[in-house]
Amino acid sequence: MKEIGLEMDLEAQEKVELCRSVPADLQMSYIQGTDLFGYVGIEAVLDQMRRKTIKAGLEFNIMVVGQSGLGKSTLVNTLFKSKVSRKSCTPNYEEKISKTVKLHSVSHVIEEKGVKMKLTVIDTPGFGDQINNDNCWDPIVKHINEQYEKYLREEININRKRRIPDSRVHCCIYFLPATGHRLRPIDVEFMKRLGKIVSIVPVIAKADTLTIEERHEFKERIREDLTVNGIDVYPQREYDEDPEERVLNDRIRESLPFAVVGTDKEHQVNGNKVLGRKTKWGIIEVENVAHCEFANLRDLLIRSHLQDLKDVTHDVHYETYRVRRLNESNPPLISHLPAYPARPITMTE
Amino acid sequence: MLKPKVLSTGRDNRVRPLSLAGHVGFDSLPDQLVNKSICQGFCFNILCIGETGIGKSTLMDTLFNTNFENFESSHFEPQVKLRAQTYDLQESNVRLRLTVVNTVGFGDQMNKQESYQPVVDYIDRQFESYLQEELKIKRSLHNYHDSRVHACLYFISPSGHSLKSLDLVTMKKLDSKVNIIPVIAKADTISKSELHKFKIKIMSELVSNGVQIYQFPLDDETVAKVNTTMNGHLPFAVVGSTEEVSVGNKMVKARQYPWGVVQVENESHCDFVKLREMLICVNMEDLREQTHTRHYELYRRCKLEEMGFKDTGPECKPVSLQQTYEAKRQEFLVELQKREDEMRQMFVQRVKEKESELKEAERELQSRFEQLKRLHADEKSALEEKKRLLDDDQSSFGKRRAAAQLLQAQSLTANGKKDKDRKK
């Protein structure tokens, strides 16, 4: 997580580390910039890496949060072009408003061009649906932390698995209703709390109720609100690694949150089959960038930043959790240990 | 208010495959990963073990087509040392940080019993520093310069007979710590038929001694075939050279002899190309993976078990690392406290002793003073007595003298009268 200018410093630091005091039987030296006189074949390692990744398979865990009726399940189905979530597909499904916030996760294995991915979608029915929504984010926070805890415990084991199963939430899509005004208190509270532990991607749901101008204004106000409340959404500014990435991410940040429309029905437009919502006044093409920003969201999440989402979760959020966890003194853990001498021990942390 | 609760379904049991209705696009994920790695750069560490002068540095130069700074080592090193050099190489857009570790003085000593120890220590040290980094609370593993040895090229000298006992012992010690790839060095001194016999002999000796060398992986179909063939050619007979000789109309890397030219990159002359293929082009990533998942995990497991950590407690209940760590910490602190108390007690005791000693001395001094004083008083009184006696004597003598004088005076006057009387 550094820029190129800092990278030089880091390299210098590494150089110093390499030439640090070493035991007497070891001599070390550091040379840079040796030129190759001919072909060696180092770049074949990229291919090897690609093959190994494909063989190992990928895991991706995505969580969708929002009030019921905002189109979460439909959007997920549209994103992954398959019936990931059964809700929107069964014709007579009546969604009952649940009395509590439950987390419902479903896993599927999808394959594309030889690349297998285990996709887990965690749904949160009941969020924001009660009359009193105090602390409705608690089960969600608990679930996310539980996944980190699971991973941590597995990592700390003496005999650990070759590949630790990764159930940590890589991305959380937060659905904002298209009110056209500003962020609501529940939105602010939720994003403030969760922005610290997971990568949040806010989207404006059912954006076909806003005109383009209304959409722009809404987005601006939302962005303002986010800055005012100190909420950091993905892609976070501080994790940009180099200027190129910064430029790319700046462009993304300027168009956040994405205004999306989801559907899984296809219609004919100009002789092509497109995914769209048919209304009396026209067909809203989901994948048309002029109509809604679904394609941008899909590109961000899947085509360009999928690996980055996983990396930020692993290198930043998980590490933060780990630091916090290892720093806590845990009386409940120690109480299971055999009796120790009754002498009071004064220890300072 | 109803308290919200979590109900997560057992998703590990319900993973079913799903078919996609269109192009989603996550097949670009390997490319995303590769791009990221390109930005970060790769790390590769090779350890070369072999006797002095066997051609380790030359082979490295030839392998990576570059001129590493090398200098000849003497044969008179008192013990085996290791020399590590790190280079930043770049080929098209791939940056590689290559560390080459050479042994210096291997096989030169008279007593070679401890020759393998510095090597094993070095490898363990690299694992240790990685383990330390991994166990830190605030760690930065993605920035960490991985110095663990990924591949070990063991140079066998081309005797044509069999492996030396030093080779066997060293390889046996290293096979569980690093991926060993044995190579026959200076292969231009062996003829083809001898080479064939030599290779078979070496492999059978390795097998019979239970040495596990690195086998090229066969699980990936794209490379399984070529890897199987290569596995059959182990150990590779290599020739290294950085000098170029013109053969035909090209300049090739070769060694020129009066009886011919040994071309390094000619597959019928030596196995150099095979080694380069296997080491770099096909299996570099696998070597790194094996080092991390097999050798490093083994080291980590042994090290943590040695320190007393367990995964399951005495009643077979899972014990977390943190619990054990806390337990150890408590133990340690208790121990410290005990020691501190002991020391304090000892200190107090010593002080007491010293105090009593001093008191004793003081008392002694006091008594001696008294004694002396008494002595002095005694003497003084004795002297006074003497003086008094003397005075008495003197006074009595004075009296006696006075009496005697008086008597004499009296007697004189009496004699004078008598004389006067006679005269009359």
UniProtKB/TrEMBL annotation, chain A:
Q: Which InterPro entries does this chain map to?
A: G_SEPTIN_dom, P-loop_NTPase, Septin, Small_GTP-bd
- Residues in a coiled coil are none
Query: Single GO molecular-function term?
Result: GTP binding
Boundaries of every Septin-type G domain copy: 56-328
Q: Which GO terms describe its biological process?
A: cell division
Task: Give the UniProt entry's GO cellular component terms.
Answer: cytoskeleton
- For this UniProt record, give its keywords in alphabetical order, as a comma-separated list: GTP-binding, Nucleotide-binding
Classification via PANTHER family: SEPTIN (PTHR18884)
Q: Which family does it belong to?
A: Belongs to the TRAFAC class TrmE-Era-EngA-EngB-Septin-like GTPase superfamily. Septin GTPase family.
Q: What is this protein called?
A: Septin-type G domain-containing protein
Organism lineage: Eukaryota, Metazoa, Chordata, Craniata, Vertebrata
Automatic annotation (TrEMBL), chain B:
Q: Which residues form the Septin-type G domain?
A: 40-306
Describe the family membership recorded for this protein in Swiss-Prot or TrEMBL.
Belongs to the TRAFAC class TrmE-Era-EngA-EngB-Septin-like GTPase superfamily. Septin GTPase family.
Q: Which residues form a coiled coil?
A: 344-392
- One MF term in the entry's GO annotations: GTP binding
In terms of Gene3D superfamilies, this protein maps to: P-loop containing nucleotide triphosphate hydrolases
For this entry, the protein name equals Septin
Keyword line: Coiled coil, GTP-binding, Nucleotide-binding
Q: Is GTP-binding given among the entry's keywords?
A: yes
Record InterPro entries: G_SEPTIN_dom (IPR030379), P-loop_NTPase (IPR027417), Septin (IPR016491)
